[in-house]
Design brief:
This protein is mostly helical. The chain is built from 5 helices and 2 strands; from the N terminus they run αααββαα. It is elongated and about 75 Å long. The two termini are about 50 Å apart.
Length: about 120
């Protein structure tokens, strides 16, 4: 297509909401094009990968919090990492205390380090 035909195709698409088909014939509607795109193997593989990745992340989080951190806390001196926090403001009159929960942050960092390991092997 030359420049003028490209410009006309763009105007046609904007005015009608349908894609211009330079070979003639029917142009596909947006839903039909989306279905064609979504049913390609790569998109379905990606969707399955995202779902499995989310589940894998939860498994690793549980592994770190329930299996790895308790022995490390025991070796350090009976420390429960999920309870480690620095209090910025003490609880007053029913208002919750303001804390920085660095123990939970340490667990999250370990999650972040462990999750990519199986993918790098």
């Amino acid at each position: 297509m030359n420049r003028e035909q490209t410009r006309m195709a763009l105007v046609y698409t904007r005015c009608t909401g349908k894609h211009f088909n330079p070979q003639g014939g029917k142009s596909m509607g947006m839903m039909q094009e989306f279905k064609k795109f979504a049913m390609r193997g790569n998109v379905m593989d990606m969707a399955v990968g995202i779902i499995i990745g989310g589940a894998f992340g939860k498994i690793v989080s549980s592994f770190v919090a329930d299996v790895i951190m308790p022995p490390i806390g025991l070796l350090i001196g009976g420390v429960d990492f999920s309870d480690l926090a620095m209090t910025l403001k003490v609880a007053v009159d029913g208002a919750a205390a303001v804390t920085i929960n660095y123990g939970k942050f340490i667990q999250t960092v370990l999650d972040f380090v462990i999750i990519p390991l199986p993918f790098s092997w």
